[in-house]
Write a structure and sequence with these properties.
- There is one protein chain.
- The protein is mainly α.
- About 85% of the residues lie in helices and about 0% in strands.
- It has a two-stranded antiparallel ribbon.
- Strand 1 and strand 2 form a beta hairpin.
- Helix 1 runs antiparallel to helix 2.
- The relative contact order is 0.11.
Length: about 170
């Protein structure tokens, strides 16, 4: 189950909680809520592992690009050596080798740029997902804290001041 589903369970637990008579407060089973929060915390590392996987995937793509580039360069060097051996086409061989080397470098550069763009896009997606998850967790924690405060039975003046302060924080 992913973190969003865990947060949805927490929200449902709070929204389905039994209301206190003559109050907006609700009774939430502490063990159930803590169990859901711990499960959500346990699932956070999976998204971090996914981010690490994307970084590893980027490194693998970079290694592959380097390897392909080196293979192209090696082929170019072999081709150069063969052409140099043929004295009539020495000049033509040098031009061909330079072209192959440039082509190999360009190909390697293109692969590297594509790999970097891919990894950057994936990291941006993970950053958005993690920011949303963090925001959802912060909201849930805030709701839990407000619920606990209400359960403690704050005085009407404290409730009024706390409500105003919470409204200002949310803005």
């Amino acid at each position: 189950m992913d973190i969003s589903a865990r947060l949805q369970q927490i929200a449902e637990l709070v929204s389905e909680a039994r209301a206190m008579p003559l109050s907006t407060s609700v009774l939430v089973n502490r063990e159930d809520l803590l169990e859901l929060l711990h499960a959500a915390q346990d699932e956070l590392p999976e998204e971090i592992k996914q981010a690490r996987w994307v970084v590893k995937d980027r490194e693998d793509l970079m290694a592959k690009a380097r390897s392909e580039g080196e293979a192209v360069v090696q082929r170019a060097h072999r081709e150069q050596a063969r052409l140099v051996a043929e004295q009539e086409v020495v000049r033509a061989a040098q031009e061909e080798v330079e072209r192959l080397l440039a082509e190999g470098r360009e190909h390697a550069r293109q692969i590297r740029l594509e790999a970097e763009d891919y990894v950057d896009a994936k990291l941006a997606q993970f950053e958005i997902a993690l920011d949303k998850t963090r925001s959802d967790i912060e909201k849930s924690i805030s709701q839990v804290q407000r619920g606990r405060e209400k359960l403690r039975g704050a005085s009407p003046a404290e409730e009024e001041f706390g409500t105003r302060q919470l409204e200002e924080e949310e803005v």
